[in-house]
Amino acid sequence: MNTDEFDYYLPEELIAQTPLADRTASRMLMLDKKNGEYKDELFKNIKEYLREGDCLVLNNTRVIPARLYGAKKESGGAIEFLLLHRFSQDEWEVALKPGKRAKVGAQFEFGGGKLCAEVIQILEGGNRRVRFSYDGLFENVLEELGEMPLPHYIKEKLTDRERYQTVYSKHNGSAAAPTAGLHFTNELLKEIEDMGVKLAFLTLHVGLGTFRPVKVSDVTQHKMHSEHYIVSEEAAEIINKTKENGGRVICVGTTSCRTVESASENGRITATSGETDIFIYPGYKFKMTDALITNFHLPKSTLVMLVSALAGKDNVLRAYKHALEEKYRFFSFGDAMFIV
Questions:
Q1: 67-145, what's its fold?
Q2: pTM
Q3: Could you report the per-residue pLDDT of 3-16, keeping only the tens digit for each?
């Protein structure tokens, strides 16, 4: 399977730069995974496509202000840190820019010395393990000095940090938002629950590896970064009962889907936590996911491959072609697709 098979041309003007004023006002492309038929809809009408006994699986991770701008202590040279994974209270995996020359022992400071960092290890792939030092609580320092880590394709400044969070975000730890969930409001979720649809909340702290284009030509040779996930007893019980009763397990976002698939075996999901580097591409047999609410994804990305595994590559690329022709908004702040 060649990576180029998942490529498509996207005009830059279709990349959504800002969130809509109303979270539910986005468009939604319905895609039938069995026959490839698609239909234009509005996200606010999603209730029409849900039914009593279904379950929405939502990722309640919360994005941290993971981007830091500072300087190298000795030279004063500008540096950008992106926090990716927390090893311990004060030690993190970070991506540095520019970072090729950051050797073990290199020291950096942010906010005029309110936060300092020392490189203690060079990790596989070029990221660094750093140890931070500061006064007070790290979370408070980060809240003061950090910026929301918007993807590189978003050039506009985000005026309201909460618009890059889902309304149900709860557990700090992500370097990117689970963007399919950005379309929901508390009011819409309440209306969906009142219909008899269950909500199951789990956590996967989103790293940036999920969003990076696949660089190898052979899809099977791509290595995913691992991400930490948690499935609670409550979430597992809701999902398992949904299956037992013949309802659909509808994952909100590829991160929820990857978590569900990582924790499932033999038609059941287990309450567990750990690291997952699951890579879902065509040929994968889904264990638990029946339907998926998602956004439109980058060409050649693992996320295009995941939705192609669920709905069929040809079906997905035809639907994307239609979305391009109809000028849907793409990527993080863009429109939705509902694969059923």
A1: Thrombin, subunit H (2.40.10)
A2: 0.94
A3: 999 999 999 999 99
